[in-house]
Design brief:
Strand order of the largest sheet: 1-2
Number of helices: 16
Number of strands: 2
Shape: flat
Order of helices and strands: HEEHHHHHHHHHHHHHHH
Radius of gyration: 22 Å
Distance between the termini: 8 Å
Largest sheet: 2 strands, antiparallel
Number of domains: 3
Helix content: 55-70%
Length: about 300
Amino acid sequence: MTDIAFQGDPAVKDMALARLRRHIADGSFVFYPAWEEGKANVIGAIVEADDQTAFAERLGYPIALVTALESIVNAYQTLPVAQTYVTDWFEQTPVGADLSRVVSQVLLSILERSDLVTLTAPHAELERCRQAVIALHRREIDGDAADRKGWKVERLAAVAASDAITDGSFAHLAGLIVEAAAWPATMRTVLSDTLDACGRLELRRETGAIGWTEALESRAYKIREKAEIDGRMAELSGIDRMLGLLDAEDPELGQHFRQRLECFERLGHINRLVGRQIVELMRQAPVVATPAEASA
């Protein structure tokens, strides 16, 4: 049996939680890297390697969930909050739960978000594709999965529909979300790719709200590149040096860059929202296997 939480074995869940709690207690739980010199993120803490496949196989989580897990955890930004989330991820997953429907359930919720529908609705073909991909995921949930050809037809249609939107609007970015979700739930990166596409839309919205453009981004980093050559403010480092350089050469740009930094700190809302939803869906997933059944 696949995608059965903890292989139906309470000892596997206990092992995972014990290893995670040890890293948290020792102060060796980190966002990155996955596994290095005793420090570990959510993947490394459990399998003691940078190995998402091993994590999925040993713990019975769908590979698409595991592939997205690190970016979801990183969206929590501060270690104490991230540690609480990861602990909940394991604690709230029932031993023996059938997790095979969770990825499609999450993708459905993303595709049905009202802000996404607002962007796709004015574009007839893109909206048709969104609804078609929803229908395919509903079939997966119902146990009547479409064949690869069915997915490919709708995926190519979604690519064409989003490519046809060339006005630089948010609708094109919405199309990229539909494209990314147009894969079966068993595809390794379907959820992480969809979340990445959501992140691009979120970024454009946030930066657009403050008037930050690619031209401003380019100007700011050209100032930094010039300073790397002439050595200005070498006594400073990182963001402090960047802000000092901008304040000295273009104070207005410096203030605008500070708004950009605040904007980037707000990013990750979709990942955090999806992260909490995943935990709740796993908590509610039907328990279908005892240890003996899982090993059969």
